[in-house]
Structures are given as structure tokens and as C-alpha cells.
Amino acid sequence: MTTFSFAVPTRVAFGAGVRRQIPEVVRAQGWRRVGLAIDHNLADVAVVQELIAATTAACDGVVTGYCRVAEPTYDALDAARGEYVDQQLDALIAVGGGSALDFGKAMAALVHNPEPALAYRGFEKLTGPVLPIVAVPTTAGTGSEVTPNASFVDAREQRKMGINGEAVRPRFAFLDPDLTASCPRAAAISAAVDSLVHATEAYVAKKSNPMARLFAREGFGRVFNALPALASAPDAASREQVMFGAFLAGVALMHSGTGPAAAMSYPLGVRYKVPHGYAGGTFLPFVVAHNAAQGADDYADLYDVIQGADPSASRQARAAAFADRLHGLMRDLDVFRDPAALGLTGPAVDRFVADTLELSGALEQNPVPFGAAEIKTTIDRLSTVRGARA
User: Fold this and answer.
1) How confident is the model at residue 2 (pLDDT cuts 50, 70, 90)?
2) C-alpha to C-alpha distance for 353 and 3, rounded to whole angstroms
3) pLDDT value, residue 1
4) Is residue 220 within 8 Å of residue 298, measured between CB atoms?
5) Do residues 127 and 69 lie in contact, with contact meaning Cβ atoms separated by under 8 Å?
6) Of 23, 82, 86, which is closest to residue 56 (Cα–Cα)?
7) Are 166 and 125 in contact (CB under 8 A)?
């Protein structure tokens, strides 16, 4: 008999227009003063201005700050926290992509936790209260709207780690596909590919469970099948499918675990400035192909939800075909990054391997052994991809 636990503590509202429910929540919760943490790229977007105005009308005061960097560092958090400290805030509403949501989580935490942000790196390090968090994603893929994690770059150590714990899990999340309409194509692809990494690695992780797999499989199918349309001619239907699928993948991730593609994405992002989703997507097909060749055939279940899949093939053949379909999608979306063009050669490879091995928890969740030799082999195979760019 399988034993597992499962919970989604965040109260989630999904659908076009649900952002208009935010003022009702502010009033119902009795929040008098609210902080807003917004991606600075959205400052002049009409629907965001509408959200700010509606929130302001629902309470006595709003303090608005902006996430001004694509990958916030701990130093950036310390520089920004002064906008929110001593403002008598009752809650924090974060609006934007994954980085902006994580930035908002950090601001909610640092209002009453006075040490430098780096002091709270790790798990459950916060000692003071954390403001209730409302997450309003404008991209579809990171899962930050429901997870108890917020990731930031340690600029001195060149590592990406989080301020993690139940206190930073959003209390409310409003997933409104209309808010993704203004998302630039590259950012939309990066976020969606990130969700495919989440779903794929969550499905096969050693500590996965039937509920996590249910969410991962459904989420993967929705994103994979809608992503080509989102990338070429986005419409309301493709935005909705990708946002819903990405949400399901995020729920799966927080109940299972991630794997080598996610682990390798961190040093590729921190040291080579590759956007997080592109970084994970660069490695995912090679990790899957390696695992499938070693007998990991659970990928067959994910292959079966891809449009045009051949359900009559053996599980091993379908697992191999799944790797091929992933490779084709990443190629078509121009996701692959060329190690040589990035400078990931020679001694830099050894440093990359060492950085990845520090994320041993993710590597250990892989269904087959994956260590230094496999990381190097993945980089070698990536080097042979035609058309990969810096």
C-alpha cells in the first residue's frame, strides 16, 4: 500500500479576470495597508495599473516597490527592503514572473526579520513574522505562486539558493491568463519550458507519489501540446492551457522533487546568465535520453499524453520516443545553448560539475545514478547540437 501526504495550502483562483477578486480578499482579510512588489517591466501595463488602482481603493494605503533585476541577488534584497520596512504593512502582493514573485516573498519576510537577507538562506531560517503573501503571476511556469521557496543569487559565491519555508508560501494566488498577454515571447517560452522540467522530473523522482504524478502528467500534457501555439501565435486558449498546466506542474514539484536538469540549470543561469527555463530545457532532453537508455521507462506515461503519440509501442520505445519529442520541441523553440559559445569549456566544465554536485539532493532524486561523469557527458552531447547558440 502506497503511503504519502499531500496538501495545497495556497488558496488558488484560476481563470480570466480573477485578478479583479483581489480587492475583495484585501477587504475580507481586514488588511489596511498593503505592499506591492511588481516587476518593473510591468509598471506601465494597463491591467497592472488597474490592479494597483483597485487595490489602493480597497484599503487605507498602498506601498509600491519594484523588482528591477531579472535574477535578484541577496544584496538587491537588502537594498530594496527599506521601501517596505516601518510601513505598518498587513500583507504583500507580488505581481510578475517568477523572479518578481520571489522578490515579493523576500520583502514579506524581511519586513520583520532584520538580519541581512543572506542570513536567511536555507530552510526555515526566519525567526520573525512574515507578512501574508498574495501571488499574481504574469508568466506561466515557475510555480512560485504555490511553493514555499524563493530563489536568489549569492553574488560572492556565485550560487543560487533560497529563502525557503512555509512562511513564504503564498496564502492566496490569482492565476489570470489575461495577465500573461503582455509577456514577451522569450520570457513566455522560458517559463513554460521551466514547467516542463518541473513536470518531467517530478514524475520520475524517487520520492514522487501517485498524487504528484497525477498532477505532473496532466500538467505536462497541457503545456507540451499548447506551447507551439503559444510560441507562434498566442491566443487566449493557449495562454490558459499553459498557465493551468504550469500550475499543475508546480504542485507536482512541491510534492516530489526535481532532478539533474534543474540542478544543472542553476550554475548555467548564475555563471552564464542563461534564463532559468532555457537553462533547464537545454539539459532536459539529454537527461531523459540517458535515463531511458538506463531502463527508466516511466517516461512512457508522459509520452502518451503528447499529441500524435504511438500508444502501441513498448514502454521502453515510448520512453525513448519521449526524449526525441522533447529534443525536437527544444530545438524548434531555439532553447538549446552552446557550451562553447558560452565559455563552458576546459576548466570551466570542472567548475560547473562542482557547482552542480553541490545540489546533490536533486541529483539523488534521479531514477538512475547521475554524477560527475554524467554531467560531463551531458555537456559533451549538448556541444553536438546544431544551431545551439549562446
Assistant:
1) confident
2) 35
3) 54
4) no
5) no
6) 23
7) no
Count of CB atoms situated within 10 Å of the CB of 274: 22
Contact indicator for 73, 155 with CB cutoff of 8 Å: yes
Per-residue three-class SS string for the chain: CCCCCCCCCCEEEECCCHHHHHHHHHHHHCCCEEEEEEEHHHCCCHHHHHHHHHHHHHCCEEEEEEECCCCCEHHHHHHHHHHCCCCCCCEEEEEECHHHHHHHHHHHHHCCCCCCHHHHCEECCCCCCCCCEEEEECCCCCCCCCCCCCEEEECCCCEEEEEECHHHCCCEEEECHHHHCCCCHHHHHHHHHHHHHHHHHHHHCCCCCHHHHHHHHHHHHHHHHHHHHHHHCCCHHHHHHHHHHHHHHHHHHHCCCCCHHHHHHHHHHHHHCCCHHHHHHHHHHHHHHHHHHCCCCCHHHHHCCCCCCCCCCCHHHHHHHHHHHHHHHHHHCCCCECHHHHCCCCHHHHHHHHHHHCCHHHHHCCCCCCCHHHHHHHHHHHCCCCCCEC
Please answer whether residues 323 and 299 qualify as being in contact, where contact means their C-beta atoms are separated by less than 8 angstroms: yes
pLDDT, tens only, 21-53 = 999 999 999 999 999 999 999 999 999 999 999
Are the C-beta atoms of residues 87 and 33 closer than 8 Å to each other? yes
- Res. 308: pLDDT tops 70: yes
Query: pTM for the whole thing?
Result: 0.95
The torsion angles phi and psi of 78, rounded to 5 degrees, stand at: -65, -35
| pLDDT, averaged across the chain | 96
User: What's residue 366's pLDDT?
Assistant: 98
Residue 224 has which C-alpha cell? 507540451
Percent of the chain at pLDDT > 90 equals: 94
Q: Please, how many CA atoms are within 13 Å of residue 335, restricted to the half-sphere of its CB?
A: 32
pLDDT tens readout for residues 215-247: 999 999 999 999 999 999 999 999 999 999 999
- Position 96 scores a pLDDT of 96
- Tell me the three cell numbers of residue 241: 492551457
* Backbone dihedral region for residue 141 (phi beyond 0: left; psi -120 to 50: alpha; all else: beta): left
CA dist., res. 350 & res. 355, Å (int): 9
